[in-house]
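Predicting holo structure, zinc ion bound.
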Amino acid sequence: MPSPDRRPHRQPGSSRWPAQPADQATVRRNNLSLVLRHLHDLGPRSRASIAAETGLNKATVSSLVAELVERGLVREVGAERAGSVGRPALILELDGAGLGALGLEVNVDYLAALATDLAGRVLYERRLPYDAIRNGPAAALDALARLAGEALATVTAQGAVPAGVTVAVPGLVDVARGVVTFAPNLRWHGVWIADHLRAALGHPAYPLTVDNDANLSALAEYRVGSDAGTADLVYLTGEVGVGGGVIVDGRLLRGAEGFSGEVGHMPLDPRGPECGCGSRGCWETLVGMTALLRLAADPTDRAVHGAGLDPEERLAEVLRRAEAGDARTLQALDTIGGLLGFGASILVNLFNPRVIVLGGYFARVGRYILDAATAELHQRAIAPNAGGCRVCLSTLGFSAAVRGGAALAAEAVLSDPTIVPRRAPAEPRPAATGGG
Ligand SMILES: [Zn+2]
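Done. C-alpha cells:
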C-alpha cells in the first residue's frame, strides 16, 4: 500500500516543491496537484483511498476532487464495494481528454510530432524526412511550426485544448531560455528556438519549452517504456551521435546548468577519430552509426557508403548482411557492442542504474550487440554483477523523444492544475472521442 511519502510525487522534469512559506492559494494549488498526480501515477481509486494515501483529510479531498472535475481533469467512473456494509465508494480516474500535450522534434534528417491527451492517449503522430543541416535553422523551425500547426489543429478538432508544447533537439539546450546553445550534428549554435516557434504559432498562452532529445527520451522510457517506473534508469540513443538521459531516484538528472547526460562526448580515446564537437575519441566516434558503417564496409562499398543514401538505407543494408551471416558485418557489430559495454560500465560505476535502455539504431541492431555489450559491462563495472544492472532494448522506436516531449508538456498541468480553466457548470463536455 503506498504511503503519503512514497516516491511518485517527485517527477522527472517537474519543478521542485516550493520552498517558501505558502499562502492559501499556493497550498490549494499544491494539493490539487497532489491529488491529480496521485490519480495519474497510481490509477483509479476512491476519495477515501486518496485521503488515506496522501494524508489529506476527507473533506479536503472531496473539495479538491470537485474542483478537478470542474476543470475536466478527473471524472467518476462507477462504484466499488469496499466492504460488507455501507455505501459503495465512487471511483475516480484521471480524465484529461480535453487537454492536448504536444511533443515536437527536430533532428538531423527528420522532423516529428506526437500529441497525447493528459492520460497519455495518442491524438496525433507524424514523422517527416527533412534535411535540417542543408535547410538551416530558420527554415527548419518554419517547417517545424507548420507541422505543429497541423498537429494542434488535429488536437483541437478532437475536442482538446492545447496545454503545452515541448521541442526536442539533439544538443545542449538552455532550457530556461529555450535556446539551443550547441547542436554539433545539426551544426546549430545559439538558436532561439522557443522565441521563433512562439512567434510562428501566434504567441500562444500555453507553455512552450525546449529540451534535449535524449533527456526527453529517458523521460518517455520512465513513463511509458518497457521498464516504465524504474526509478534509476539510463537511456542511451545511437544515431549519428550518441545521446543519453539519466533518471536518478525518479528524477531526470539535469546538472547545474542543464547540460548533463552528454555521454556521447565522454573522451574514451584521446587519439581516436575526430568528433563533431571538435574533440577526439569521444564515445560517439567509437559507437555511433558512422563508426558502425566504417567498421562494416570499405569506403568504396556503395551499398553502405553511397552518396545518395539516407541513414535508414545504410542501416538496412548492414542488417541485411548481418542476417545473411556476413562475417565482417557480424564482427563490426560485435566490436560496437563491446565498446558500448565499455562506455556503459562508466555510467554503471557513476549512477548504478537498475536498467540501461538502448534506443535509436542500438535498438535496431540490438540482437547483434547485446551479448558483447553485456559481457563487457559486467567485466568492467566495479560492482558485483554490474550493480544489478540489466541492458534492454527500447520499444519506443523513433517516437521516444516526442513521447517524452508530450509527457513533459502534460507535466505542466500535473504541477499546476489551475492553468486549465474551470468549465461553466451548464456547459456540456467537449466531444472527446474514444476514451478508455
Ligand atoms: Zn565529442
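Residues 265, 275, 277, 279, 282 surround zinc ion (CB under 6 Å).
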